[in-house]
Amino acid sequence: MQKPDYPIFLGSEIEQPEASQAFFHVIAAPFEASVSYGAGTALGPASIIEASDQLEQWDGKSKPCDLGIYTHPTVECGSKHSPLTSQQAVANIAEATRKVAKLGKMPVVLGGEHTVTWGVIQGLVEAGITDFGVVQIDAHADLREAYEGDIYSHASVMKRVVDMGIPLYQLGIRAFCEEEIDIREQHGVYFQDADELVPNNINQIQLPEDFPSKVFFTVDIDGLDPSVFPSTGTPVPGGLSWYQTLQLFESVAKQREIIGFDIMEFAPINGFHAYDFSAALLTYKLMGIVQRNLK
């Protein structure tokens, strides 16, 4: 295939395959509109893809790239000079995801603020995938009906998900309000919060028997402790460790079919490329876990 005119994930190590020949499809969605503290998530996807040039093909256990990694052109999400409404950006993300899912491939979505996940979920549903659940690693519950009057806020993305009737399991939450506690109860949201997971070093979960056989896994970078990733807009102390995060993801992959995952809310810090590399490595490590647990 002709080399694309844009950077690709792991581009220093692999060539861009034909889309039909790649299992993993990387979608960069640099949407940022409702961040409420630190900014910079719009720069996250490009920074992760650029840093992926420093990765090895061998992830320590296998070579995820053997399944093929196809990187899509960046999804149009608007900018300061060419703004889009949240609805327009979400629709563009949904369409990019829908196309990948219709090919029978796995979307690996790099955001952007967590609102991006709402577009991804819509895309999966539009592709005809309806019987799936969402597992979320995050510092925040993101279950508010609206935040600052915006139902498309990053703080409301999981409320949009459960409103569709999609089962949700939350991991590592440590910042939420009373409204979100009520919504958890109303929608039967499963959870193991950080105050249980972290002090007890819990690195495996057992999904409920009635949880769907397919899972989309969303990772908000702030779900990990700020000692690992200070590079996010709303860091909260007391988060998951690096290995704990990987092990929790793997415990889900061993029980269910992962149909896609995303990495959200990464806001690079200028001059601190270690965090860019870590985010790229996290992405690739999750690909490796998926590869080794394919059903």
Automatic annotation (TrEMBL):
An MF annotation (GO) of this entry: metal ion binding
EC code(s) of this entry: 3.5.3.11
Stored PROSITE patterns: ARGINASE_1 (PS01053), ARGINASE_2 (PS51409)
Cofactor, how bound (note): Binds 2 manganese ions per subunit.
UniProt KW keywords: Hydrolase, Manganese, Metal-binding
Necessary cofactors: Mn(2+)
Any GO BP annotation: putrescine biosynthetic process from arginine, via agmatine
Taxonomic lineage: Bacteria, Pseudomonadati, Pseudomonadota, Gammaproteobacteria, Alteromonadales
InterPro entries named in the record: Agmatinase-rel, Ureohydrolase, Ureohydrolase_dom_sf, Ureohydrolase_Mn_BS
The protein's name in its UniProt record: Agmatinase
Matches recorded under CDD domains: Agmatinase-like_2 (cd11593)
Binding site for Mn(2+): H114, D138, H140, D142, D220, D222
A Pfam family hit: Arginase
Organism: Alginatibacterium sediminis
Similarity comment text for this entry: Belongs to the arginase family. Agmatinase subfamily.
Superkingdom assignment: Bacteria
